[in-house]
Amino acid sequence: xxxxxxxxxxxxxxxxxxxxxxxxxxxxxxxxxxxxxxxxxxxxxxxxxxxxxxxxxxxxxxxxxxxxxxxxxxxxxxxxxxxxxxxxxxxxxxxxxxxxxxxxxxxxxxxxxxxxxxxxxxxxxxxxxxxxxxxxxxxxxxxxxxxxxxxxxxxxxxxxxxxxxxxxxxxxxxxxxxxxxxxxxxxxxxxxxxxxxxxxxxxxxxxxxxxxxxxxxxxxxxxxxxxxxxxxx
Length: 233
Fold this sequence. Notes:
With 233 residues, this protein is an alpha+beta fold. 49% of the residues lie in helices and 15% in strands. It folds into two domains: 13-100; 109-226, Cytidine Deaminase, domain 2 (3-Layer(aba) Sandwich), CATH 3.40.140. The chain has a five-stranded mixed beta sheet, sandwiched between helices.
């Protein structure tokens, strides 16, 4: 009877040993020990526990172009590829969590002394957005980041900014300095005349109240442009 029971138990799927080995490599060596498709495999394991996800991970990276582009893809794009909504959300949650961790690391930091970290943060969170977003980084008297807020979301090539609303929000937060940030989905981070004029209008609204505009950063897939470094403010 025991022999019959043993014979009726199905063997483990052929990919179960691969999963165990991949997890072990990650535990011992971190993500540096894994290829990009293997990192994606580990994530897909959680959403698709009974499926061999190695071919899927490779196909996703091949289709979107890179591991980064898989994470930056929208949920509708991932679903259009053939993923379930649950799997697509699982991938996007990893991206969202990484952005939140980066943000938490920045809050309370003296931003002007952590400029490279700030540039990495705004590029990671904004470079792949398909619409323009106007973001405000509020600083205190010590130039420590106290708040990071998206004020407006616009179209593919325009987002409005309202100087009075920006100044009002700074006063609410007791912020004495602001870094303006917005993205160019076109991929070109060159500041436009509209960007320059908008910056000057915000500076003019903030100055009488003692609020300093440190910089205006324009983010794209190709890099980050600083209006201050370009002598445009």
